[in-house]
């Protein structure tokens, strides 16, 4: 489905084109392998229904979108284009989206080549489904096709978190993987400030499992530790987060961009 290219889309496309100056044709089978590998990095929790898409930085368009989009937003993949998707972002959230994307481009342009693979983009916005109802989408993205001079493609995961975050302004974070520092809840009028985690590496692993809905016994089995150890970590995580229940923990983790 075609959609007029709004000023928001055209402005965002200018940002994206600053990180790529040549078009690169992708090998379909190789790209699919990249998608399957990186989906495991992005899908760190099952907080709701989701779909994924591959975005081409040079053309400013979506190249691949998974069929799950119909369950989530009501549209079939062949109905969608990036301008069409952007037009359905809540009017009050469009400026946030544009500023987040500007920050993303600014950040990745400043990163050393070897660290590009170690960062995930995360922010949320409200999106209008085909039935006219708004849901809140958690957007997660990682670079999957790039070289020392250009960024070609990103893989994004869109998850419905409406049941977790019903209100509040969009939140933007850059999550460090492989022990890289993260930048949580970045304010649009501030420079990047490293956020050193309140959680230990093991606590972060357990936090991800909690948000996935896993019980303590399953977490203990997966991490090869005792049930007592997991329960102790869970108590410490709740205390550090300043919440009393797992439900409150999940909501705060998403709101603060800890995942």
UniProtKB/TrEMBL annotation:
Keywords: DNA-binding, Transcription, Transcription regulation. The keyword Magnesium does not apply. Residues 60-106 form the PAS domain. PROSITE patterns: HTH_LUXR_1, HTH_LUXR_2, PAS. It comes from the Bacteria. Residues 192-257 form the HTH luxR-type domain. Transmembrane segments: none annotated. Gene3D superfamilies: PAS domain (3.30.450.20), Winged helix-like DNA-binding domain superfamily/Winged helix DNA-binding domain (1.10.10.10). InterPro entries: PAS (IPR000014), PAS-like_dom_sf (IPR035965), PAS_fold_3 (IPR013655), Sig_transdc_resp-reg_C-effctor (IPR016032), Tscrpt_reg_LuxR_C (IPR000792), WH-like_DNA-bd_sf (IPR036388). CDD domains: LuxR_C_like, PAS. This is LuxR C-terminal-related transcriptional regulator.
């Amino acid at each position: 489905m075609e959609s007029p290219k709004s000023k928001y889309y055209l402005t965002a496309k200018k940002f994206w084109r600053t990180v790529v100056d040549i078009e690169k044709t992708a090998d379909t089978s190789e790209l699919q392998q990249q998608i399957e590998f990186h989906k495991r990095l992005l899908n760190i929790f099952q907080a709701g229904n989701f779909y994924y898409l591959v975005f081409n930085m040079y053309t400013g368009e979506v190249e691949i979108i998974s069929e799950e989009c119909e369950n989530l937003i009501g549209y079939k993949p062949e109905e969608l284009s990036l301008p069409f998707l952007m037009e359905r972002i809540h009017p009050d959230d469009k400026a946030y989206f544009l500023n987040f994307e500007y920050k993303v481009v600014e950040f990745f342009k400043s990163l050393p080549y070897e660290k590009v693979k170690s960062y995930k983009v995360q922010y949320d916005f409200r999106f209008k489904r085909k039935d006219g109802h708004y849901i809140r989408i958690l957007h997660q993205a990682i670079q999957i096709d790039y070289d020392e001079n250009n960024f070609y493609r990103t893989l994004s995961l869109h998850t419905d978190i409406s049941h977790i975050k019903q209100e509040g302004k969009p939140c933007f974070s850059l999550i460090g993987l492989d022990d890289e520092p993260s930048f949580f809840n970045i304010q649009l009028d501030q420079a990047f400030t490293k956020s050193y985690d309140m959680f230990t590496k093991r606590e972060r692993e357990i936090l991800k499992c909690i948000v996935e809905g896993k019980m303590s016994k399953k977490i203990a089995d997966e991490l090869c530790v005792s049930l007592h150890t997991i329960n102790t970590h869970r108590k410490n995580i709740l205390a550090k987060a300043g919440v009393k229940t797992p439900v409150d923990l999940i909501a705060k983790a998403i709101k603060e961009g800890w995942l």
